[in-house]
Design a protein that fits this description.
Blueprint: E1 2-10, E2 17-26, E3 33-46, E4 48-50, H1 61-73, E5 79-81, E6 89-91, H2 94-105, H3 116-121, E7 137-141, E8 144-147, H4 148-155, H5 171-176, H6 185-189, H7 203-209, H8 218-260, H9 265-273, E9 283-286, H10 290-299, H11 306-314, E10 319-322, H12 324-331, E11 336-338, E12 344-346, H13 363-368, H14 370-383
Parallel strand pairs: 4-5
Antiparallel strand pairs: 1-2, 1-7, 2-3, 3-6, 7-8, 9-10, 11-12
Helix pairs in contact: 8-10, 8-11, 10-11
């Protein structure tokens, strides 16, 4: 699971403004964007709304009702704007900003990230894809600005929303990402640096080109968007199959471990590490982590070796009993590394509990499974 952090700011509007941080969960094997949460740092909202929105026959009457609800939630009234030059700006308190976060991050909000501008502004946001200088929402990272509406059009399917309404709160995925170091957009785009599209280079190159006003003609944008969307959807469709296969292999893994060690993971840990381990509980970790195997599955999707790659997840020989804290650090490659003999070398400044338990795989256990263990150990050494 990857975490993308985007520093958001409103455009050059003089009638409303906001600064926020947008955290986006994504599948780090293929780049599929899963969910997002916004955190407002400051903001000022225009409480006047375009008069035509109030008309029940107007296609934006739903936006009018939703804006009324949003404003009422923060103790403000939705008023009518009779002239374009009319504005009534309210600087929002921390409490009001928190209420907005709760609404936009919840299941009830099903519109796009970019349309947050609409609800701050009380009218349709300007800033088309063809005119970057008029965009009303930007990502600002180290002086490089990206148009957020283009970014989410390409990499988040179903009209930039959470699949037209979040099915669940993705709590498990967010919990997994808590200790993940966030990536920026530049790092995220590297996932698409070698994905060809349209015969015009990689998806990453095309996306960056469309940030330039001279390249973002209507024809270019519509053409590239259609093709990039098709390419991305094919990638994400494969990724969904990979994710389903990973979950199936995990279930097999749990069953295989329980059968091999009679469901007594503590005793298995004592046998594997050759000592009475002090950790109170153990998790069924992998010598070769699932995140790496999953990436290989995605890279080899549809190839002959796909089945053998995915079977490494359920292989009992890939079993490594670790406590929860050590397991997390091991998967992040931030704790220790292996030698062929099963000796573990601690990285400097390691201060995790129970490290004394994991000095070396017991020679007897290593001997019984030497071929398989060395295969997994060698592969893990190569990815450090």
């Amino acid at each position: 699971m990857g975490l993308l952090r985007i520093n958001l700011e409103s455009g050059s509007s003089k009638v409303y403004n906001f600064n926020a941080t947008l955290d986006v969960l994504y599948d780090d094997a293929c780049g599929y964007l899963i969910d997002w949460k916004i955190k407002f740092h400051s903001g000022a909202i225009d409480t006047l709304t375009t008069a035509s929105w109030a008309n029940p026959k107007n296609h934006q009457h739903g936006d009018y009702n939703e804006r009324t609800k949003i404003l009422n939630n923060i103790g403000l009234e939705n008023l009518t704007r009779h002239k374009k030059t009319d504005h009534k700006i309210v600087v929002l308190s921390d409490t009001q900003l928190s209420s907005l976060e709760k609404y936009f991050n919840g299941c009830e909000y099903t519109s796009t990230i970019y349309n947050i501008c609409k609800f701050f502004k009380g009218s349709n946001p300007s800033g088309s894809y063809m005119k970057p200088s008029t965009s009303e929402m930007w990502e600002n990272d180290s002086g490089k600005k990206y148009k957020i509406n283009i970014f989410f059009h390409f990499f988040l399917i179903h009209n930039n929303s959470r699949n037209q309404g979040k099915i669940n709160d993705n709590k498990e995925e967010w919990d997994k990402a808590k200790n993940t170091k966030p990536d920026d957009i530049n790092s995220y785009l590297l996932l698409f640096a070698s994905v060809p599209c349209c015969g015009k280079g990689s998806i990453r190159e095309i996306f960056l080109n469309l940030q330039r006003e001279r390249d973002a003609t209507t024809t270019n944008y519509k053409n590239f968007k259609r093709r990039i969307k098709a390419t991305a959807e094919e990638i994400f469709k494969n990724a969904q199959t990979v994710n389903e296969d990973v979950n199936k292999e995990r279930k097999k893994y749990n069953s295989n471990i329980n059968k091999s060690f009679r469901s007594n993971i503590k005793e298995a840990a004592n046998a594997i590490w050759g000592r009475q381990c002090s950790a109170p509980d153990f998790q069924k970790a992998h010598i070769l982590p699932v995140w790496w195997i999953k990436g290989e599955m995605f890279s080899n999707f549809g190839k002959k070796n796909y089945e053998s790659i995915k079977s490494q997840i359920s292989d009992v020989n890939n079993f490594l009993p670790l406590d929860a804290v050590t397991h997390s650090q091991y998967d992040k490659k931030s704790l220790f590394y292996w030698t062929d003999g099963g000796v573990i070398h601690m990285l400097k400044n390691s201060s995790f509990p129970f490290l004394e338990d994991y000095a070396q795989i017991h020679p007897d256990y290593l001997f019984k499974r030497v071929y398989y263990l060395k295969k997994y150990i060698e592969t893990f050494k190569n990815i450090l």
